[in-house]
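Colleagues,

Please find the record for the two-part complex below.
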Amino acid sequence: MKLTVLGSSSALPTSERFSSAHVLNAHERLFLIDCGEGTQIQLRKNRIRFSRINHVFISHLHGDHIFGLYGLLSTLSLMGRKSPLRLYAPESYDSILLTHLKDFDIHLSYEIDFVPLKSKDPLIILDEKYLTVTSFPLKHRVQSFGFLFREKNRERNIIKGIIEELGIPVERIPAIKRGEDFLTPEGLVIKNNDLTMPPDKPLSYAYCSDTKYFPRLASFVKDVTMLYHESTFDKSKEDLAAMTFHSTTIDAARTALKANAGTLIIGHFSSRYKKIGPLVEEARTVFHRTFPAVDGRSYEITNAIIDY
Amino acid sequence: MKLTVLGSSSALPTSERFSSAHVLNAHERLFLIDCGEGTQIQLRKNRIRFSRINHVFISHLHGDHIFGLYGLLSTLSLMGRKSPLRLYAPESYDSILLTHLKDFDIHLSYEIDFVPLKSKDPLIILDEKYLTVTSFPLKHRVQSFGFLFREKNRERNIIKGIIEELGIPVERIPAIKRGEDFLTPEGLVIKNNDLTMPPDKPLSYAYCSDTKYFPRLASFVKDVTMLYHESTFDKSKEDLAAMTFHSTTIDAARTALKANAGTLIIGHFSSRYKKIGPLVEEARTVFHRTFPAVDGRSYEITNAIIDY
């Protein structure tokens, strides 16, 4: 799994930072998460093929998370897209989008399969072969949702050399990876434990933006491999954060710590911050493995320890 | 007068070219013309102060000319703008914008003074001390307007040294610049022709996008100092241009020639063109003083001969 940050700014984009948008690559399937103004331009700059995006997740209906969507939808149509696009967004957006398409007399070349977000509890909104996506509620000025992308349980790892040693036929390998034993031609049962090692821990990525701090959030993203959490403000601005229903660096780090996250990526920085380094340092006083979201940067999501 | 191009692409932005947006600086007043996605980002990159923009002109309701407006309006509000913003756009946009603000629960910190465009003939839509702006109809798939920014008649130029020679009091100078004669203390009338030279030719800039070729267009922009005209396609694509109500390089150049324009800037290039040089060369076969619109480039609008 790999995350690419397309925009790391909050309400006001800067000359260095676009509005919110992330692309998650999970098993070579691309998921676009939020779509701030300029997302299509950032997709091009990062050489991400538009046609590979089949799912778009919108966390909430504030412009810096969605004003790039109209342009992207039009562009996909101009490119002749045929396959449906699944769009997950707060429920009221369904009619807003229909009105927009009518007002601008836009006839898309493809269907939009709209999935309304409304659940007040974590809810699986996509269940695929390798992955589930769960939405969960955040606490913001408007209805806002986080998203958890989690690999399904991985297969067990076959012990190096054992296939050749026992002459295991290729067609038996998938079953053994799933946990079955192996019966030798001589009628001997080799227990799966002697053939395989436990699977790697499934990878996961959670996206939390925009929200104020609340303790229950950590339970929604428990043990996540990589947590993205907004940090609009530094810790000195905690009053402003509370007032605007946003988080400080410390809020993000507390949630990461409480959730036992592997790595924390902070972003959605206020345009007042020219340098992001001090924000990262601040978060690290609470949660050491904190890294900044940087436009155009990709982050490998892995159980290994990597400096991003 | 100075033009800054913020976006030179047509429907699909590329990694090099944003969607349509121009900023005209006339006597230190800024006019934003079209507002494609990413305009606010380009304004920042080009260090153009948002607060100096008081007039926004939208040529037509296609996304690549307007999808940056929602973000810009929100940003101006977040920046605490108080003074009204004058918005000129096709008449149906008034209710579209109101619906948008309601849907996203946006309460702007300033008033939008909406000027509906609907005239089928050239019409002065702004009349200021130094400048008039005239809208004129284009021929596109939807109602589309061009804009002509024209300096008012300039004042006459006082002949060098004449003030000192005749001892003309400072308070008489404005009247003499307007064409009045000068009465000496001795009662002698000095004719204005002996005091001044004719004024410089007033400067003008016309914006023509999107449109197919039509002969009458040249009359709307007659003798313009600098003509911007869309050239979505090269001349080999004239059928496609006709079908989509766009122009080729040759169409743009013919209009410039017929209008007796000083200089032609072509833009709104299809994303199929990686290099713009050949398009410029093509237009120059008809109208020699053709230059390309380039994102971030500024063009001095002057009666002098300049290579841009």
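Residues 161-197 of chain B form one domain.

Comments are welcome before we finalize the supplementary table.
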